[in-house]
């Protein structure tokens, strides 16, 4: 409630730019950060994907407003997006891997945009200063918090209070409705995250942290509450989920993003995400990815499963040459040497310039 | 300082400017990483008094962010190769008894990605090699960290000896430093000796 | 940028060697001097200037006005100082395409090299045994491309971070809250480095944790620049 009042008090057009000295200071800081971000190695420079995401933002919040934001797609395999007070919006690739359709992406973008329009960073800054809560703002100090580097400004600096998160969530539902997106998809994001955290925990033999209020979630409503009030706010409204458009847009990046995820050594979450992606059926690419995951997982029986996934993938259609490599390596571990040699030989035939050609050839020969 | 970037830096987790440096003289065999593995450097190096892990040791010519030669010796099955930042929430890949050469590469790549929180890591070439007379693997890679945005190249030599992993890595900025220092680093790696007799008795 | 900012400030603030800092605050590559026959053209890489107010709890409140003013003052003071030396300081032009990426790469590498040089050279306790003697750091000869793109002989990198104590801060003097050590009101750190754009060698480096000069005022900025340029390699021209 308090946040809503503040919102009302500050609901001037952001297009006018920073109004006060402190606000100009925040913008300056972010303009400097943006200068760095522009040249960052981590920014995904793909004009098709960029145009697509910007297009979704514009459809969601309106063409006039979206011009105030500059979207940066950042190669980071975790779920996050952020909006700085100067209009610098960051969307992490881990988020692109997790949202399942255009409506979910739109929900996140609208949520971040609502923070921007509501000048939430500024409110947060004032509150932090009022409480002399230096800890909340350590990110502004030279020592920083974690590897914020030039990009990870999301978590620490704009650790928005739960009220503001809630306000931004509800604003996003309004945007989804007026843009004709299915508003019920907003809640699906949080349901998905909860289920993913359950899967991580189960695979690691631990209790799930899904509704824990700590770490990243300390400043956010817990995912369970969030899904509940979002569902309520969206009740009765229909719309387009844009699943096919989203799949097509993300397709060129999909293999890289799933590879980034597999290498996080979080097999429970990865398996969950693959299952999600396969809700319309296991494609050859998904089966290959699952083979890679199971080959690395290391539980009894995983190698045999990996072999089965690779074989299904190869039978199902077009797969990267690496499917044969994975098959050969899994078979080697199992001890099926003849089959392993054949598969590794296939890999080298299909990818004669492979970077690991020398070691694979040596493994075939031994 | 230590957070400046490098894996060793991330691992050393040192309080700023507290790392001391000891001379590693040229031409004399020297045991590394509290193990029976020894190397004979062709030129003098500097050894950090802080370890990147309990089975590790870091050398440099220019400071770890510019040239980082690290040794990890006799890591047994079930252990992570590098020091874990958060065992519960960010567990690293483990050494396993039946690891293939390609699995060693994957474990190193996965560990770097997790510890450095980067997805910009690419393995380039992987080839058979010998480490102290034992069959092993040599591989090259490139990576970048968000902390400093410096693009780096790396080369590593690894082998499973007596069921334990021995690994040497060299990381340096792709601009100038990798090319300028790789020969010296490679000479150290190639001089490694792991006495067969001591292989099974480690600690 | 933050990576650098984080590490240097942390290091400076917490090092037990800080007392020795001022005596070791700058270093020059042995034997270096500007070519005597012609003025050197020095490319100034966009200085990192951050000025803000420190609140009671030690939080920095960035100030766009102070920063912009300081940036101007520092540029003018630099200009004046170098003109007095017979050198020309020109801003590195904005580069496009692959040159922009090259510039970003070298900025990142400079921060890393300067960081290493400061840690291992300017802090005697952290010296590398193999590098005890000479001040010998480089970005490598490949930087020539950057010199060609920008049209200069040397590159000057400059960084200042100032957080002025607010009234509340000055009263409170909260110990240990800001950087983990006892702090006076305000934080004033800076460094500057000069790179030979033909060889890539870092020919001069200066850094300080307790910079003087109020960069929000022209005279203060001049003082700061003078302090940052302490030990700047001279040509044989008497200073003003």
UniProtKB/TrEMBL annotation, chain A:
Print the keywords alphabetically: Hydrolase, Membrane, Metal-binding, Metalloprotease, Protease, Signal, Transmembrane, Transmembrane helix, Zinc
Domain Peptidase M48 residue range list? 62-232
Cofactor(s) required, per the database record: Zn(2+)
Gene Ontology terms: biological process: proteolysis involved in protein catabolic process
The note on the cofactor says: Binds 1 zinc ion per subunit.
Q: Report what the protein is called.
A: Peptidase family M48
Report the sequence similarity comment from the record. Belongs to the peptidase M48 family.
List residues traversing the bilayer: 134-159
Q: Which GO terms describe its molecular function?
A: metal ion binding; metalloendopeptidase activity
Spell out the coiled coil positions from the record: none
Annotated GO CC locations: membrane
Q: Which InterPro entries match?
A: Mito/Outer_Membr_Metalloprot (IPR051156), Peptidase_M48 (IPR001915), TPR-like_helical_dom_sf (IPR011990)
Task: Name a Pfam family for this protein.
Answer: Peptidase_M48
* Range of residues in the leader sequence: 1-15
Known SUPFAM superfamilies for this protein? HCP-like
Q: Please, which domain of life does this record's source organism belong to?
A: Bacteria
Automatic annotation (TrEMBL), chain B:
Can you name the source organism? Sphingomonas guangdongensis
Which key words tag this protein in UniProt?
A: Signal
Name of the protein in its database record: Uncharacterized protein
Q: Which domain of life is it from?
A: Bacteria
Question: Could you say which residues form the signal peptide?
Answer: 1-19
TrEMBL record, chain C:
Q: Which UniProt keywords apply?
A: Signal
**Cleavable signal peptide:** 1-19
Statement: the UniProt record of this protein carries the keyword Signal: yes
- Source organism, top-level taxon: Bacteria
- Asked if Signal is a keyword of the record, the answer is yes
The protein's name in its UniProt record:
DUF4136 domain-containing protein
Species of origin: Sphingomonas guangdongensis
Organism lineage reads as:
Bacteria, Pseudomonadati, Pseudomonadota, Alphaproteobacteria, Sphingomonadales
